[in-house]
Specification:
The complex is a heterodimer of chains A (about 400) and B (about 120).
Chain A lengths: L3 H10 L11 E6 L8 E5 L4 H6 L4 E5 L6 E3 L4 E17 L4 H6 L6 E6 L1 E11 L5 H7 L11 H4 L7 H5 L6 H10 L3 E3 L2 E3 L3 H18 L6 E2 H8 L5 H11 E5 L5 E5 L1 H13 L5 E2 H11 L15 E4 L6 E4 L9 H11 L3 E2 H8 L9 H8 E6 L2 E6 L5
Parallel strand pairs in A: 1-6
Antiparallel strand pairs in A: 3-4, 4-5, 5-7, 8-9, 10-12, 11-12, 13-15, 14-15, 16-18, 17-18
Helix pairs in contact in A: 8-10, 8-11, 9-10, 11-12
Chain B lengths: L1 E7 L6 E9 L14 E7 L5 E5 L2 E4 L1 E15 L12 E14 L4 E2 L9
Parallel strand pairs in B: 1-7, 2-7
Antiparallel strand pairs in B: 3-4, 4-5, 5-8, 6-7
The chains are: A alpha+beta (about 400), B mainly beta (about 120).
Chain lengths: ~400, ~120
C-alpha cells in the first residue's frame, strides 16, 4: 500500500505544488473482483432513483423474441445497452471535494479500491406499455354468463393478476389501469372480459329498467337495480354493468347511485348494430341508431371515434366498423394498416386511430410528420403513406 | 416470459459510490491482471479540481453531478436455463450520483531531462 512519503515523492516528480492541493489523497487500485465483470451500470430515468432508495424493486420483462423492457411499479421503459468509448470506473468510498472539506479527518491517505469498470451501461427510455396482449389474452375465453357451459370445462385460458404480470411487458399499475379501461372484471379470482352479446344483454336489462321506472339517467339507484334484476342475472354482473356504463356516487343519505354515461351507451349500441354488417348506409344507420338508444339519449357521430369510420366518398355515404384496438400496436405497422384501408386521410379522421401511439410528450402532428406525407386535396389537407403499400 | 428482478437493499440506505470516467483504456503495466494493481493517485486542488496521476501522466478533470444517476447492479442467482427454474436476479449495490470526468489530454511527466553538455 502506498505511503504518504511515496505519494509526496510522486507529487514532486510531477512538479505539482502540494500547497495548491487538498491534503487528502485517494490511492486508487483495482479491487480483487474488479475484472470479473459481475457489476454493471443502469442509468436511471427521473423518479427511478427515488424508487430504489425507497427499497422498491424493478423488473425486466420479455419473451426471448421480444425487446426487453424494465418496469417500475407504474412505468415501463425500453432497455438498451449503450456503449461508450470511455472507460467507466466505479469506486466505493471515494470522496468529492465538498465531502473532504466538510469532513476534517486526520488520516490523509485513503486507499480506495475500484470495484469494477465498464465501457457500457444499460440505458432506459420511457415507452408505452405493451398492452395489446392483455386484451388478446382475455379474449381467449370471454365470459358468457353463468349459464354458459364453457366455464365448467376450460380452465387454462384464465388469468390472475400474477399471471398477467408474467406475460405482459408493462408495470402493474399500467396493467390494472388498462383492465379498468377495458371494463374487465374479476370472477373467481380471474380477470375476465365479457363476451359482447352478454354485455349487451346486461346493458339492455339496465336500460329497460331505467325506462320502465322512469328514472333520471343521472340518478339510477344501485339497490333497486339489484333487487329487480337479481333474479335474471348475477348481482355482481348487474353491478359491473352499472360501473362500466355509469359514474358511481353516493348521495347525502348514503345511497349509491349511478350517473349513466350517455356517450358510452350510445357507442356500445352502435357497435352492436355495425358488427352485423360489412357497412351501413349512413342515413339509415342514423335512424336505426337513434331509435335503438334509451329514451332521453341523443346519438352523435363523434361518439364513434376509434370505433367506426364514415366513407364520405361513396354514394350514398356509408359507415363501417373499424376498431382501433384491432389495429397493430407498432407505430409503422399501424400506419401501414390504416393506409391500406384508406389511401388518404384527413387529420380529423385519422387522429382517433393514432392517438394512443403518442409517447409522453408527443403530439398527433409529430406522428403524422414522421410516418405520413401530406398533400392538398380539394382544398383540404390529407395524409398518405410515405411508402408504397402493397 | 423472463422476469428478472432488480431488488434494492434500499430502505436501509444505499451506498454512494463515485464514477471515474477516463478516455481510452487502462492496461496493466506488467501485462498481468488488473485486479489488485495500482491505478494512481487522485488529488483535488483547493478549488475542487480533481487531479489524477496515472503512470507517467497527469490528468485534470472536473466533478460532474449526474443528471441521470447510475445504479450499480450485481448479478445474483444461478440463472438456470429451465423455463420453470429461477431466473437471474440483480441487486442494487450502490448509487452513483457524481462522476469525475477526465477528458483533457493527459500531461506527460518528464522525469529525466538530460542536461545539455
Amino acid at each position: 500500500m502506498r505511503s504518504r512519503a511515496e505519494v509526496d515523492a510522486t507529487l514532486r516528480t510531477a512538479k505539482l505544488n502540494p500547497a495548491e492541493l487538498l491534503p487528502v489523497v485517494h490511492c486508487l487500485s483495482f479491487g480483487p473482483q474488479a475484472g470479473a465483470g459481475e457489476c454493471c451500470l443502469l442509468q436511471l430515468e427521473p423518479g427511478l432513483c427515488a424508487e430504489l432508495e425507497a427499497g422498491r424493486s424493478l423488473v425486466i420483462r420479455g419473451e426471448k423474441d421480444e425487446q426487453a423492457v424494465l418496469c417500475s411499479k407504474d412505468k415501463t421503459y425500453d432497455l438498451k445497452i449503450a456503449d461508450t468509448s470511455n472507460m467507466l470506473l466505479f469506486i466505493p468510498g471515494c470522496k468529492t471535494p465538498e465531502q473532504l472539506n466538510a469532513d476534517q479527518a486526520s488520516c490523509n491517505v485513503i486507499h480506495s479500491q475500484i470495484a469494477g469498470f465498464s465501457n457500457n451501461y444499460w440505458e432506459l427510455r420511457r415507452c408505452r406499455p405493451k398492452l395489446k396482449k392483455l386484451r388478446k389474452l382475455l379474449m381467449e375465453d370471454p365470459y358468457e354468463g353463468p349459464d354458459s357451459r364453457k366455464d365448467q370445462t376450460l380452465t387454462f385460458s384464465k388469468y390472475t393478476t400474477e399471471d398477467l404480470l408474467s406475460l405482459i411487458q408493462a408495470s402493474e399499475e399500467e396493467i390494472l389501469h388498462q383492465l379498468q379501461v377495458i371494463d374487465a372484471c374479476k370472477i373467481e379470482g380471474f380477470w375476465r372480459i365479457l363476451e359482447f352479446d352478454y354485455e349487451m344483454k346486461l346493458l339492455n336489462h339496465v336500460t329497460q329498467l331505467i325506462d320502465s321506472e322512469s328514472w333520471s339517467l343521472s340518478k339510477v339507484p344501485l339497490c333497486t337495480c339489484l333487487e329487480e334484476l337479481g333474479s335474471l342475472e348475477p348481482r355482481e354482473m348487474i353491478e359491473h354493468t352499472l360501473l362500466s356504463y355509469g359514474r358511481k356516487y353516493i348521495d347525502d343519505a348514503g345511497e349509491v347511485y349511478f350517473e349513466m354515461y350517455e356517450d358510452k351507451i350510445c357507442r356500445a349500441i352502435a357497435q352492436m348494430l355495425l358488427q352485423n354488417a360489412v357497412k351501413f348506409n349512413l342515413s339509415e344507420f342514423h335512424e336505426v341508431w337513434q331509435q335503438s338508444v334509451p329514451e332521453g339519449m341523443t346519438t352523435r357521430l363523434d361518439q364513434l371515434k376509434g370505433l367506426a369510420l364514415v366513407d364520405k366518398a361513396s354514394r350514398p355515404e356509408t359507415i363501417f366498423l373499424l376498431k382501433v384496438e384491432d389495429l397493430p400496436e407498432d407505430n409503422q405497422e399501424r400506419f401501414n394498416s390504416l393506409f391500406s384501408i384508406r389511401e388518404k386521410w384527413t387529420e380529423e379522421d385519422i387522429t382517433p386511430y393514432i392517438q394512443d401511439l403518442c409517447a409522453e410528450k408527443q403530439t398527433v402532428g409529430a406522428l403524422l410528420t414522421k410516418y405520413a406525407r401530406s398533400s392538398m386535396q380539394n382544398g383540404v389537407k390529407v395524409y398518405n403513406s410515405r411508402r408504397p403499400i402493397s | 416470459m423472463v422476469q428478472i428482478v432488480i431488488s434494492s437493499g434500499g430502505a436501509g440506505g444505499l451506498a454512494q459510490w463515485v464514477l471515474v470516467e477516463l478516455q481510452g483504456e487502462v492496461e496493466p503495466r506488467q501485462s498481468g491482471e488488473l485486479a489488485g494493481s495500482l491505478l494512481g493517485d487522485l488529488h483535488y486542488t483547493r478549488e475542487g479540481v480533481p487531479v489524477l496521476i496515472v503512470g507517467h501522466h497527469i490528468l485534470y478533470g472536473k466533478v460532474v453531478q449526474l443528471e441521470k444517476p447510475f445504479a450499480v447492479l450485481v448479478k445474483r442467482g444461478a440463472g438456470e436455463p429451465s423455463p420453470a427454474g429461477p431466473h437471474a436476479c440483480y441487486t442494487v449495490t450502490a448509487l452513483i450520483k457524481t462522476k469525475l470526468l477526465f477528458k483533457t489530454r493527459p500531461k506527460p511527466i518528464i522525469t529525466n531531462v538530460p542536461k545539455k553538455v
